[in-house]
Design a protein that fits this description.
There is one protein chain. This protein folds into two domains: 65 residues, 3-Layer(aba) Sandwich (DNA Methylphosphotriester Repair Domain); 32 residues. The protein is 33% helix and 13% strand. The protein has 103 residues and is of the alpha+beta class. A four-stranded mixed beta sheet has the order 3-1-2-4.
């Protein structure tokens, strides 16, 4: 487990992406683990535990969050699915596809 609990709690509450990959937050009540920057509402501090890796969370019996995808690697297509979808939509709009074919 990660040792600086107060710092980890602050990072999770502020959704600080600088801590992504530094530690992972496991939620005891849901048995789900997340990145510090996960967009979901942060859990109560007493329900959090902190791990140094996704593998550590999985060994402890937690499953990956479906929103922040903490089990994926930075730069992989699964890492930021929303950004990929938005970028594709912007390209289609710029290329005039939406005007020609509709939504």
């Amino acid at each position: 487990m990660h040792t600086d609990t107060e710092r980890c709690v602050r990072a999770v509450r502020s959704k600080d992406a600088r801590f992504d990959g530094v530690f992972f937050t496991a939620v005891r009540t849901t048995r789900i683990y997340c990145r510090p920057s996960c967009p979901v509402a942060p859990p109560k501090p007493e329900n959090m535990e902190f791990h140094p890796s996704a593998a550590s969370c999985q060994r402890a019996g937690f499953r990956a969050c479906k929103r922040c995808r903490p089990d994926t690697s930075p730069g992989s297509p699964q890492w930021n699915v929303r950004a990929d979808a938005v970028a594709r939509a912007m390209r289609l709009i710029q290329d005039g596809v939406v005007d020609r074919e509709g939504v």
